[in-house]
Amino acid sequence: MPELPENEAQRRLLERECLNRTIESVELGDDTSYIELPGDNERKRLVGRQFTETRRHGKNVFAGSKTGPWMTVHLGMTGQLIPFDEPADPPDYTKLLIRFEGNRALAFRCPRKLGHVRVIDDPDEYIAKEGLGPDALAIDRDTFLETFGKTKSAIKAALMSQEKLAGIGNLWSDEILFETGLNPQCRANELSKDTLGELYDAMQSILETVVSKDADYEKLPDDWLVRGRDEGSDCPRCDGTIVTAKVGGRTAYFCDKHQE
DNA sequence: TGGGTTGTTCGTAC
DNA sequence: CGTACGAACAACCC
């Protein structure tokens, strides 16, 4: 589920389904060893309150109110927020269950336990403390050019670095570089200002498009990498082949021809 | 069976 | 300091 567009879709879901309802209980699910979830006292802080607004910064979703407290959710690799109406059972792998007035409930599902939920006082303070860079859809062009013009790491690793830019991960960094025709291994500071500008434009347009489709990949054009991101398959843009390489600790998928 | 995964963190090294 | 790498975390999928 987990990069900027997927998290934005989750934020919208919370906005639609879970706002302005008094929280009656916040309970832990089954098998909560290892995963970080709010403790007894933190969960109690939410009871009796309402979420009246939501926010998102990079891959972090927030729900809270002017006076706080706030809940912040990180989905990890396989986390999901699932609103539902009781008495239906919560989904498998529910790690946290919030019950609202009426019969509305919200499950935080996290099979691989790589996500977390925290209760915090203030999102801005939290974002600063976590050292997150500007959100990838909010960063302005000049800041982007400045940051990337002086980083020596591989461009893909730089795009995925949450301290530089919050919200891009393995999947969408591949798509952005595919669109721009850049090799994921090239050094960020060796790119011209014009090329970095093209990269910025591709990033904005790709993220906006995926957000506009609520991160439903079926609705994306057939010539996007994400639609056929398999090693050895034909490039949908040229007569190249999709190949892989390890970059920034992750597997990069790219075209061996139009991305050099 | 072994290897891979839309994520992060930590130790280590240069 | 900035950067790079492997391992770890956990469970599922092929």
Give structural notes.
With 260 residues, this protein is an alpha+beta fold. The chain has 2 domains: 4-130, MutM-like, N-terminal (N-terminal domain of MutM-like DNA repair proteins, Alpha-Beta Barrel), CATH 3.20.190.10; 141-226, Helicase, Ruva Protein, domain 3, CATH 1.10.8.50. Helix content is 29%, strand content 22%. The protein is built from 7 helices and 10 strands. The chain has helices at residues 4-17, 40-46, 123-130, 141-149, 155-160, 170-180, 193-212, and strands at residues 23-28, 53-57, 60-64, 70-74, 80-85, 94-100, 104-109, 116-120, 242-247, 250-255. Strands 1-6-7-5 form a 4-stranded antiparallel sheet. Strands 2-3-4-8 form a 4-stranded antiparallel sheet, sandwiched between helices. A two-stranded antiparallel sheet has the order 9-10. The chain is elongated. The relative contact order is 0.13. The structure holds a DNA duplex (14 and 14 nucleotides).
